[in-house]
Specification:
27% of the residues lie in helices and 32% in strands. Bound molecules: guanosine-5'-diphosphate. Guanosine-5'-diphosphate (GDP) binds next to helix 1.
Length: 715
Amino acid sequence: MTTEPQATVNDPKREFTLERTRNIGICAHIDAGKTTLTERILFYTGMVHKIGEVHEGTAVTDWMDQERERGITITSAATTCYWPVHQTEGIQKIYDGEKFRVNIIDTPGHVDFTAEVERSLRVLDGAIAVFCGVAGVQPQSETVWRQANKYNVPRIAFVNKMDRTGADFNNAVNDMRVKLGANAWPVLIPLGAEDQLKGQIDVVNQKAILYLDDDAFGSKYDVVDIPDDLKDMAKEALDNLIEAVADVDDEIAEMFLEEKTPSVLELKAGIRRATIAHKLVPVCGGSAFKNKGVQMTIESVIDYLPGPLEVPAAKGVDSHGEEVHAPAGDGGQLCGLAFKLWADKFYGKLVFTRIYSGKLEKGTQVLNPRTGKKERVSRLIQIQADKHEDCDVIYSGDIAGIVGLKDVKTGDTLAIPGYDISLEPPSFPEPVISMAIEPKSKGDREKLSDGLVRLSDEDPTFTVRTDEETGQTIIAGMGELHLDIICDRLKREFGVESNQGAPQIAYRETITADANGEGKLVKQSGGRGQYGHVVISMMPNERGKGITIENKVVGGNIPKDYIPAVKKGLEEGLLNGVINGSQVIDVHVDITDGSYHEVDSSEAAFKMAAIFAVKEVMKKAKPILLEPMMQVEVTTPEEFQGDIMGDLNRRRAKIGEMISKGSDSIIASEVPLSEMFGYVNNLRSMSKGRAAYSMEPSHFEEVPANIVAQITEQK
Ligand code: GDP
């Protein structure tokens, strides 16, 4: 491992130091109130002057028309805002009086869009997890929480909707502990509940904050003493909080043992250390919609969530496969991650990029190690709610949209030429549903394929391929809604109307044994012929590693210039497997040998030879068919449990954990997606409409032999 020399951390020209920068995400189950919370934050930070309610469909972070229509947040828009930490009498804050830049990435809560969540979690330094005060921790909040664990994102929690009937703050905190295993402790407890919700109790400062209803959207608040009847509860909450921090933080532990009470700032520093170390989750409660508690929650972001210097340096590999790091700092070499592509009306392709080290100046060239190409950055754009601002420089730890890059995909690294680093891209789940698509009018063929390529560059969970046998264009994604939205976007953004076939399971193929063989294209019938000859060996790759190809040809048996064509042929050949033409995954190919002809060889001939080689060798390498497995959780009154389990078994389910909760049973299982069509109706009739279920993609698994036969017969 190489360590970079320590470089200047803050460029003297930057307005907000790295210490005064926060990159946060707001993640939650759909409907918990992310969009409403984001909008309130943008309002209180002065980025928007009018609040557009979500149900009216005007929230600024919901960029896409479809989202407005569907009322869900699909894309993660990166928005920049500024927060001055106000000096407030009676409330001590770590960064009193300082001004911060906060970049917010709105993440979707719908499982069809987990890739969006993954890609934004990858570039965040911290997150606000939003929960509904009535529903507590819902299955999808668990999914998002697990993803945030995977990327080590420190979190604070916001229990929203405390104004609603039945809201229960303690229950939500308890849910976080039990269901998510989070070490959750309240720092801002809702004061009052339901229609009596008035504000928050600041546990650390032991004060009450009352948000005033009389001015615009509760932007003013009073700090008062805690009402007498709540003093004991507040004191107990503080004692519990100190003890909880002492359990996970040495400095506070030492004070605790010496029976010294930490000061407000000492305790806040302890909470900050513990949160950044993933040992504690501070919890705030309130109501975004009723303007109760948002400002103090932003201050908790500043107080407790890390800046770019406080998270581990971005990890990557160099061209020899050695681990390298890109530590935050403007004096370092430029390196950033393109985490989202956006087809913008004004700018064309906008590439949202997180700069990890160094600084990116307008007009400079960046190298993309995936393509080996340099491209010029023509403009740098920062989005501030509904305004776009042109910048000359983006400093380390910041996020902006780049204009001018052509050949770039989500997950690509962008670095200064000469800096040998590829950052770890986010990992994305494989698509599970596919369908055939064709343009309504024959003349739109090219427009359709352009649109599909653009959309698949943007979205790594959306793929496009051509079925070899039928010649049809097949698109695949994470669910029907996902593909629906793709078709909508084709119409709106690319002007192509399309017809789609019925949704099908997106099967995969892989191999289980090593094998080798060759492919040859020889045509010599007068004039210039064609000649390509490729020898390869194939072996199974670890699950999730995808397709990897290595050139091991020595002595120029295949001239270097033809190697890219061979690789292209191999990749193309692997798009259609040998069992039922499904896409092949997790295979390694070595190009070991071949031969060429001085006159007849061409790129096209080598590409064809490589495709032949793939088909030939795959058959020998014990191929298997894989199917998407779904994690299915059914909640049912106990009386129907037997029937539901029997039915799940018939659907080839692997039953996992079963929990009883009151008079309900919760059955966790893994079921092949192919067995889940029509489940809604079935479950409804088995349980007289009283059972409910949730389902999300889990992994791919081998299809049993008898079922493979059925599938291949259908083809
Ligand atoms: P998202 O799907 O997580 O982005 O959630 P939204 O922000 O779109 O909110 C979902 C619905 O809940 C909308 O109708 C909001 O108006 C409503 N909502 C959001 N926050 C609150 C809240 O604090 N209290 C109440 N009563 N409703 C809320």
